[in-house]
Amino acid sequence: ILVHETSPEHQTKTIRYEFKLANPDGEWLGNGSGNLYSYRLALKTNYRFPVAGTYSFTIEQNMRDNPLREVSDVGLRVERAK
Question: Is the entire prediction scored with pTM above 0.90?
């Protein structure tokens, strides 16, 4: 995937992430059953935003197969560092 991060100062940076969603035999990773699976992956750990304010993120699918028929939703969750 490509994650586009826009800062409060309207500067955008793009970072590419590669995540494995299934085993080589086609078995989905994560938790679930049937056609619905949930899979949590960390993009960044112990990260501090450089400037206070509102950031926006856009997640872009970046695979040869487009659209990915088996993937219906993608989300992003930001948690306060402990």
Answer: no
